[in-house]
Amino acid sequence: MATPVALSRPPILNWLAWHPASDKVHPSWLGSGCSMSTHQMKGFTLLELMVTIAIAAILLTIALPSFQASLRSNQVATTTNEFLGAISLARSEAIRGTQSAGVCASADGATCGADWNLGWLVWTDVGNVGLGTLEATDTIVRYSQGRSKMAINAGGVGAFVFDNRGRMSARNGTGGAMGGNQAVVMQSYVCPAGSNLVRTMNVNMTGQVTMERSDCP
What we know:
Layout: H1 11-18, H2 46-96, E1 101-105, E2 119-124, E3 139-145, E4 150-153, E5 157-162, E6 168-172, E7 177-178, E8 182-188, E9 198-203, E10 209-214
Antiparallel strand pairs: 1-2, 1-5, 2-3, 4-8, 5-6, 6-7, 8-9, 9-10
């Protein structure tokens, strides 16, 4: 019959068995069979921090112009689409109803003005009074606020009015008639030379709209 072999353990463990309340043990007391490891916390050195900041500054310098160009392009696209949508809505309202409808420059969404940079509204005529001009009895269908970072030039046109056949007649800022086709030019307020940020909307007398893209001068 094999004789059991007694396994020895460091004396300090025997001592701890008789002194459980003790919590101060030096690593050398554990003997060669046990060990304790310590971990040292390390942070950034000043040189590493300066290198990181320098790399971040270089990346920001490269990315910022591209980001700003994307913002300007999105602003031009959004403003152009809103204006085209307003023209289309006014023409549809005029054809659908029995009276005229129109789009005019507006700063407050309640009255017509002459500055398209401040915004515009779509209205439909109600009754037979003041056809082609916005009256207190008319219905305002939609209002779009102006874009502070856009420049809009309508060549003196204050309103585009459509009859029930969809034909367009332009009015100046005081309501006077303007004949012929009209153009509205929109561009980013900051328009670097060579950037494709200019849009020209041509509205002909039949009510059709075409758009042209061009670069900043």
